[in-house]
Design a protein that fits this description.
Layout: E1 2-6, H1 18-29, E2 34-38, E3 52-55, E4 58-61, H2 63-73, H3 84-109, H4 115-125, H5 131-148, H6 155-172, H7 186-199, H8 206-212, H9 215-227
Parallel strand pairs: 1-2
Antiparallel strand pairs: 1-3, 3-4
Length: 229
């Protein structure tokens, strides 16, 4: 059986990292049977990153590579109806979500207004995690943010960047249905992975304030969230 290794759940979503939740949603939308193993330590994962998938003797890291592998190996039809233009849009949305990731992560680990709330939420939700472990993870993330660039932003400037990404999503998504029509594609799994980790998050960040003010973002998120409950 397929086994997905990803970060633990939080605030009612199956993975508190958008990339792991993206793969989880894709597997669910495609009705593929799988085991879901939650881990915190990514040191033994491919490239030292989560999520990764074990499929027999194969170990695949990176959410896009996992989805591409599953589509090819299991002849999945979830994206079969997409036009060339829609596939281009899908790629652009994925790259934009990569940008949004850094702002989401910044809001949890870097922003002094929200860090204590996030820390306490993790400790309440996962008693096996220690404050020392979180502090070490925070120090590691600070280094990542600095070299990526978002760590050099003031909070308001960082959120402006993330909200610009979310505004594009709000402009692209219809009032009901999915990005490319009545049926979800793999692009919708990716959008859900990010928006759900903002919308269902218990802490009211500027990103969450934007999402809840846009009915189509909420409707899209909830439609996928309830599809596999």
């Amino acid at each position: 059986m397929l086994t997905l290794f990803s970060y633990p759940d939080l605030s009612g979503v199956a993975d508190n990292n958008p990339y792991g939740l993206k793969v989880y949603a894709f597997l669910k939308l495609c009705n593929l049977a799988f085991r879901h193993e939650h881990i915190f330590d990514a040191s033994k994962a491919p490239r030292g990153q989560l999520p990764y998938l074990v499929d027999g003797d194969e170990i695949i890291g990176d959410s896009d590579a996992i989805i591409a592998h599953l589509i090819e190996k299991y002849s999945l039809t979830i994206d079969d109806g997409l036009t060339s233009s829609q596939r281009d849009t899908h790629l652009l949305v994925r790259r934009m979500l990569d940008d949004l990731y850094w702002v989401m992560s910044f809001s949890r680990w870097k922003d002094e207004r929200f860090w204590p709330l996030f820390r306490d939420l993790i400790l309440r939700s996962h008693p096996g995690v220690t404050p020392d472990t979180l502090e070490k993870a925070r120090e590691f993330n600070f280094k990542r943010y600095y070299y990526q660039g978002i760590g050099r932003y003031e909070p308001n400037a960082a959120y402006a960047r993330g909200i610009a990404d979310l505004r594009v999503l709000a402009n692209l998504l219809p009032r009901s249905g999915f990005l490319f029509g009545e049926k979800p594609s793999s692009a919708d799994a990716g959008i859900y992975g990010f928006v759900a980790n903002i919308y269902f998050y218990e802490i009211d960040t500027p990103l969450k304030e934007f999402v809840i003010s846009h009915a189509n973002l909420v409707a899209h998120c909830r439609s996928i969230h309830t599809a596999f409950k």
